[in-house]
Amino acid sequence: MSIKEKVVQGALCQCQFGTTPDKLKVLTQQRYYINDLNGSEKLAATHKDIGSTFEKNTFGSCKKQNNKPCNAVVTEWSGYYEKEKYSPPDGYILVEDSKATCPIGGKDCIIIMKTGQIGEPSQKSIKNSDNELQSHVNPVIDMKNYSQEAYKSIF
105 and 48 share a domain? Predict the structure, then answer.
């Protein structure tokens, strides 16, 4: 398996028959967080996240229903990573190319556009970063003269 991003709460999903995306909500567990400094927002999504598991539970109007409003329901996920399982809910982690099935749209009609992961800098990651690279990525911080007080004033 090539390296793939794991999917978290807030991932942007789209149905191929819908007109607007919706954000994934993790309803099956409250224990496992990914790439979340405070462990409060980015719950890990698994293949057990089925049913009405989106914030608005709609992808706009549905082409399969003559443009009637969509009522998003996931019956199953495919393409999840079977080597990483979270218990509870005994679910395998969803990855960026996982797809969901809807009873109206059919197999794999819902894709993940964005995984929901956004990097959050921590004191340790900034302290361990490459000075040369950091000067190009973040010219505001002079990593050669890095100090805890400078970090605190920025973040």
Answer: yes
Structure tokens, 16: 């191929």
- The alpha-helical segments, DSSP class H, found in the chain are 123-127, 131-137, 148-154
Same-domain pairing of 133 and 108: no
| Domain shared by 19 and 93, yes or no | yes
Strand partners, 99: 78, 111
CB 19 within 8 A of CB 61: yes
Walk along the chain (155 residues) and give the pLDDT tens digit of each residue.
578 999 999 999 999 999 999 999 999 999 999 887 777 889 999 999 999 999 999 999 999 999 999 999 999 999 999 999 999 899 999 999 999 999 999 999 999 999 998 866 667 776 777 778 877 877 777 766 665 555 555 55
- Whether residue 79 contacts residue 45, with contact meaning beta carbons closer than 8 Å, is answered with no
In DSSP terms, 15 is beta-bridged to 110
Q: Are residues 108 and 133 in the same domain?
A: no
